[in-house]
Amino acid sequence: MKTLELQLPVHWAPSLVNSDDSGLSDIDIKAINKFIFSMIVEYGKCACIDVSEYCDFLKYHDAMEYGIMSCDCATFTFDITQE
Known about the structure:
29% of the residues lie in helices and 34% in strands. It has 2 helices and 3 strands; from the N terminus they run βααββ.
């Protein structure tokens, strides 16, 4: 299995792990959808398989290009194995 680890906002976890967008703002939902689309274009899927329990406030993280500013982030692990 080939994996990819990214530093992403910890509040994205319910959406990326369980497809649960409840409680997220419209801005966050749009950013997550853009992220998922870019993962599908790049890797053919967006399957989050783990989220670290440790989080840290980060100014620079992997969701910045989707308009997300400094926030608490965790390490998200994605299965990017080509089928």
